[in-house]
Task: structure prediction
Amino acid sequence: MSASISFMDPEVQLCPFKAYDEVRGPAKVYQDPATGWYYVTDYETVRKLSADAANLSSFTGVLMCKTKSAHQDEIDAIWQSEGFLPTPVLVVSDPPDHAFYRSFVDRSFSPARVKRMEEYLEGIVDDIIAEHGGRDVMEFRSDVATRLTLSVIADQLGMPRSDWKQLDEWSDAVMAHQDQSIPPEKEKALVHKICELHQYAARKAEEYRREPRECLLSDFANMEVDGRRLTMREFAAMVEQGLTGGKDTSASAMCSAMLRLCEDPALQERLRADPALIPPFFEEVLRIDSPVQGLFREARSDLEVGGTRIPRGSVVVLKWGAANRDPAMFPEPDQLKLDRTNTRRHLTFGYGPHACVGNLLARAEARILFTKLLANMKNFRLADGPESVKRVPHFFSYGPMALHVRYESLPGAAS
Result:
């Protein structure tokens, strides 16, 4: 096992899979020399620890609620003067608080609710495809994936779709702020930008308290659970996570799926001929190209994992992206196989109490999108060779940040 690999290295972040293979081994745990953090990369251990809230806390101070910056006082002053101090909700909260926050969102993403959204999702996708009927090139991330995911999450939250470009900027700022290597001045600029989202959220809270409606922001503003409502700090944090969770991870996965189609014309034809293969195709993309490569935990006490002692207070990184390519669980893990029988056991949406609440919606969006794209367009390919794909190093976010695709409309397709 190499002792020199650091997952803070931008080159490793651009394509971390070789590094996962090198550090995965009998020891189960790899300590990053740059940070001292403990990485878990094999499937069984990642799955087990993902559900272990008793020994591992989701509140670490390095994600969403950053508390360990060298210039934390300056950052906190910006939060307090322009927005709201971060507070741990949803993905960075622990039981029993986690159940309180999940109660605000669970019903909106239930299987029955997502099933009823099918026609609505088809309408959004039809509109996007119609806009591209007379063209031959698209920037897939912004023109398609982001437009789709932001339209849906804006509707669910109760934000006007016309604000989508501004919502996109704020979402990008939230995700960029999660990077572990941003310099101080850039972090301050990002916090200023996120505070704009807080101010927008506060205006929406006032609006929906005056005139409640059927949407998540109205629920956030008005619902009581066990006799308690969300504070404005909690409200702002819920909006941050709702916006980024609904847009970034889904858009990245869709871009990875389109890139694989561009690189494999035979796969395009196979899926077009048999649309029933689109769901297993997307599951394999979720497994191989996990849009969130991992998340953090903090040891609540001294632990021993696979023979490695992890001291209390240490940061533990559960690497979904590595677990999803563990050959002990997924033979020939780097190969996309439509007939793989255990694909849906991937950990891309997490596992245990923090399993992604929106996973069914993300799957429905992708299934409908690629079914309709393949029915209306053909010959997807990179518009300008390798230069068509832009990747940006990020500690846990993975997927093309830009993807220029050339295509042809099929005869009789919607226009």
